[in-house]
Amino acid sequence: MSKPSPHLTVHVPLDGGRDYDILIGRGLIAGAGGRVAALKGRAAVIVSDETVAALYAAPLRESLEAAGLRSGLVTVPPGEASKSYGCFAAVCDGLLAHKVERGDLVVALGGGVVGDLAGFAAASLRRGVRFVQVPTSLLAQVDSSVGGKTGINSPLGKNLIGAFHQPRLVLADTATLDTLSEREMQAGYAEVAKYGLIGDAGFFDWCEAHWAGIFSGGPERDEAVAVCCRAKAGVVVRDEREDGERALLNLGHTFGHALERLTGYDGARLVHGEGVAIGLALAFRFSARLGLCPGQDAGRVANHLAMAGLPTTLAQVPGGCGDADALLDAMAQDKKVRDGALTFILARGIGKSFIAPGIDRAEVRAFLQDELAA
Amino acid sequence: MSKPSPHLTVHVPLDGGRDYDILIGRGLIAGAGGRVAALKGRAAVIVSDETVAALYAAPLRESLEAAGLRSGLVTVPPGEASKSYGCFAAVCDGLLAHKVERGDLVVALGGGVVGDLAGFAAASLRRGVRFVQVPTSLLAQVDSSVGGKTGINSPLGKNLIGAFHQPRLVLADTATLDTLSEREMQAGYAEVAKYGLIGDAGFFDWCEAHWAGIFSGGPERDEAVAVCCRAKAGVVVRDEREDGERALLNLGHTFGHALERLTGYDGARLVHGEGVAIGLALAFRFSARLGLCPGQDAGRVANHLAMAGLPTTLAQVPGGCGDADALLDAMAQDKKVRDGALTFILARGIGKSFIAPGIDRAEVRAFLQDELAA
Ligand SMILES: NC(=O)c1ccc[n+]([C@@H]2O[C@H](COP(=O)([O-])OP(=O)(O)OC[C@H]3O[C@@H](n4cnc5c(N)ncnc54)[C@H](O)[C@@H]3O)[C@@H](O)[C@H]2O)c1
Ligand SMILES: NC(=O)c1ccc[n+]([C@@H]2O[C@H](COP(=O)([O-])OP(=O)(O)OC[C@H]3O[C@@H](n4cnc5c(N)ncnc54)[C@H](O)[C@@H]3O)[C@@H](O)[C@H]2O)c1
Ligand SMILES: [Zn+2]
Ligand SMILES: [Zn+2]
User: Fold this and answer.
1) Whole-prediction pTM value?
2) Among residues A61, A257, A261, A285, which one is catalytic?
3) Residue B306 sits in which domain range?
4) Which residues does NAD(+) bind (chains A, B) (predicted)?
């Protein structure tokens, strides 16, 4: 029945009985049933997107049913557009149609889109039912499945509607990444590299040497996912509601979000991780320009991201991204920007990021103009 | 500017910095600005229904603006149908269009529909902004504005989607009840009487003597609202997530909800409080029949509710409510019914209610048949 698969474990020690485990390894889906059943619900209803469901819903349901859980499946179309009010309603009603009671479980099977949407539905259904994350994209395994942020988009902006709702268990089956597209893999890798750049120079060194094993599915993949989860979990436990340190996780994201906005959130042009990759390179070059960070560190960052197939300059944004003022305006709409003052995450070197509030607008403008002219 | 209006105060001592005050008195809306401004947001955006907004939004906004807060107004149509996914999205987007930031406030101005809807929107907007309740129906002042339950209806059932989200302040301006329809006033009164019946025989005595003052707007009105808020707040603080004692607040509601369901939630036929009034009378007559409660207590309950203009028998349900089996089926769909076993709130007398699990279906059936034949 439940195949004993070797795996790594990251414990997330949240208070109030909300602590949980993240298990990381190849083949965890086949053994998911026993682990989910241990949470003592009677039903476990899966939420997934059509692409991921076609690949992994059957073995997951089989495992759940074999462990004595009644299972069910609710799907949405793949893609960011499913993080909508309409899909929220459809998922909630789908879960209700599957008779999910207060003691039952919602299982999010998919990338960050499914995790965010299903997590918000679980938070809201009967004012809160428990949920399990089974992240299947690299981005979801190293980032979105950890931390308890759930939500959907409004026509007025991304991730503006949601809840803090922690999962009871995260099963990161790293074998599922074998079917992920090269481009989504690269995009997720930008977030992997980010953890090294934020606060773990040793991990960035290791990435430079071992990144190919992450892509090919060697043991380095599991190790990298575990390091990232441990890093994010640590930050989340120390700053669950993002009042302070958690902002460091946004390294590369102020620039990145602006680029996503300027490309109309059109994944065909730029996916989130690509925006982050350019943003990371920009954050380091901007730090170097301000005299905060050695120029060779900025160079290493860009070289490594490029090696992994990621863009690192504004010129690489397909269809362009407008001029410096358009970029500044797009940045000013970011949640991290308050009272018109620009707050950046900058770095004193690889692994030495910090929150830099009150950055001068003119300084950013001049930097962006030079980047655009380069 | 802020008129000093005499008022009663009920403090709700929730932990984790979530404690708040309920102020009760005539004219509190005119002085709301200073009290809301003391919560230190920069903007306070009102959510209301069109009926209530026409009556009270202007003076409330004036008071908020005079206290230096930027104000705004988002309205929905009056009525239960507004507790929908569509209105949830419209209210969230309306609040975003008014640029509600994480430190700002949402103000729910209206009956229980507006309170539940606006509260869920506040809980979800940017994963949680603070909100203030300004309840304007008797039901909202004594029941729905206290306790932190917020939510909307799904096509699959009432109140199935929502969040626990406590207000930061409740301003129950009892003068607003002067414009409430007689029927809504009576419906709310069923919940007032309920508090006496649950656990405060002295308050029920007082109600028998003073109910007319509650309806006419004498000082008895403020006193009754305060007693009810204090009773509900006490239960909520002891059992915030409704795992135990809070279930007592459902006295009369298992029958009441079944009647609402069987009349298609058509307020023209039966509003919630009317269902509760019949439910209270039934709960006491059923308790008496089981030999738990003196027959004269059941008689007093029905007499008093009838005096206040409320229905107390199944025969008074406009259009009828089907036979005993239809009633049992409708009850079995209630959230309080698990594993097919019927759990009732029964009473050993006025002010002596208790949770009675495992009530025999046949016993209930026989009782209902007699009630229908009476
Ligand atoms: N909650 C958080 O803390 C947090 C953090 C970061 C990002 N996010 C959110 O995550 C979302 C992005 O996540 P994402 O990049 O995983 O996007 P996604 O969920 O859309 O997945 C990307 C694509 O890959 C496909 N896919 C996923 N797993 C697959 C697999 N194993 N095999 C084949 N195809 C697979 C999906 O069907 C989809 O088409 C965004 O909405 C973002 O806002 C949330
Ligand atoms: N959250 C909780 O704990 C809780 C508890 C009990 C009930 N509820 C919910 O409360 C809702 C019922 O609340 P309600 O009875 O207040 O209904 P409501 O909000 O629909 O108000 C009833 C009617 O009275 C009107 N009205 C309200 N105040 C008025 C005033 N001062 N003057 C003139 N007209 C006024 C409204 O426009 C509406 O037409 C239900 O949806 C129920 O589920 C919630
Ligand atoms: Zn990211
Ligand atoms: Zn009620």
Assistant:
1) 0.95
2) A257
3) 183-373
4) 112-116, 136-137, 149, 158, 176-179
